[in-house]
Amino acid sequence: MLDLAVIGGGAAGFFTALRYAEMAPGKSVAIFEKGTRFLHKVRISGGGRCNVTHACFDPRELARNYPRGSRELLAAFHRWQPADTVEWFKRCGVILKTEPDGRMFPDTDCADTVVNCFLEHALLYQVALLQQHHLCGIERLVHGSFALRFANLTETTEARALCIATGSLKDKLLLDPLAKLQQTIEPLVPSLFAFNVSDRRLSGLAGVAHPKVAVRRAGSHPAQQGPLLITHRGVSGPAILRLSAWEARALAATNHRFPFVIDWLPELDRDALKARFADIRQHQGAKLVRNTSIHPIPRRLWERLVACCDIADSMTWGHLSKAATRSLMEELKAARFEAAGKTTNKDEFVTCGGIARHTIDFRTMQSRVTPGLYFVGECIDIDGLTGGFNFQAAWTTAHLAACAIAAASGIGL
Length: 413
What we know:
There is one protein chain. This protein is α+β, with helices and mostly antiparallel strands. It has 2 domains: 2-190 and 349-408, FAD/NAD(P)-binding domain, CATH 3.50.50; 193-343, no CATH class. It is 34% helix and 24% strand. It is built from 13 helices and 21 strands. The protein has helices at residues 11-23, 40-48, 59-63, 70-77, 82-91, 111-124, 172-180, 238-246, 248-253, 270-284, 299-308, 322-333, 389-408, and strands spanning 2-7, 29-32, 53-54, 96-98, 103-106, 128-130, 135-140, 146-150, 157-164, 185-191, 194-196, 209-217, 224-230, 234-236, 257-263, 335-340, 342-343, 350-355, 360-361, 366-367, 373-375. Strands 1, 2, 6, 7, 8, 9 and 21 form a 7-stranded mixed β-sheet that branches. Strands 16-15-12-13-14-11-17 form a 7-stranded antiparallel β-sheet. Helix 1 (11-23) links the parallel strand 1 (2-7) and strand 2. Helix 1 runs parallel beside helix 13 and helix 2 packs antiparallel against helix 6. The longest helix has 20 residues, at 389-408. It is elongated, with a radius of gyration of 25 Å. The relative contact order is 0.19.
């Protein structure tokens, strides 16, 4: 009989197994992966560099980066936060570096550094790694352990504790066994995605980046700020991804077809922008409007916005009419676009939804309805913004689960 069976060979699953094995030497641990590759998402994350965590060491501030799960993670981050993650990796020979935006990567800039660290420590702690083991049945036995049934295998595996670490719960074979254990599962919808937009203001500008915009769903919804990138399909970048995360369920309800508004100059309110226009007219009135981009709007984007306001290429600031000025003002402060779908990286993606948070004790990550059953990482209805926050939630929940399972095994912590 296994002391711990971990279902899912990704970041959260490996960290749970390794932390438990560290705390409970001699106990038997196995990771069951349904596919043929361990740690696949770790390998591709951060463009192959692996954004391990974020240099945010205040639990309260850190928790604000989770559209779903911030309240539950606040207390959890007091027990394991990025500083602990950095120290653990350092002890294991992986040094993390901090980039100007706070993201933390291995100093090798290579995800294989993290992958190899996990694989080497799994070998060191004698954690069994089992590929092509697709869990399709869970039975809780009368004495409290679990009988696990895997597709294409006739024999069952018994485990005293079971940890589900499958990532996004899209595995239909697993949903039925969890439902039989009375686990509530919130519907899955995409989070962190780009917007598909077909609009002449953006056509031909793929690759143009704006350092800071404010973008919001049309209506009185809060705006998200950050860089924006124009793509072949529409718009992406941190500001768009933040909006897609915070509004994930609302946008899914529209089938990802919705109006949104971009403020290209969030640092200037309308009065300040009006004063900027007046200053340009007074001191640079002979200049062409199309040639006088207001910082920090990229030149090519400025030219397109001016043209779409029906301002002639030959128009100078001194001759710009009041109506054209109002049109340009509106375009800069409240440009309205229509999203016509979403785009996600087919391998690197995040969803909201999964095991309902209220069914989990976040002090232990144990199910409130099935003792001995634990959940970690993205299988829970928790998701963070880009920047290493989703990995940090994986490390934190995995650590808490490992501690609880070790304590239940009689290990004094």
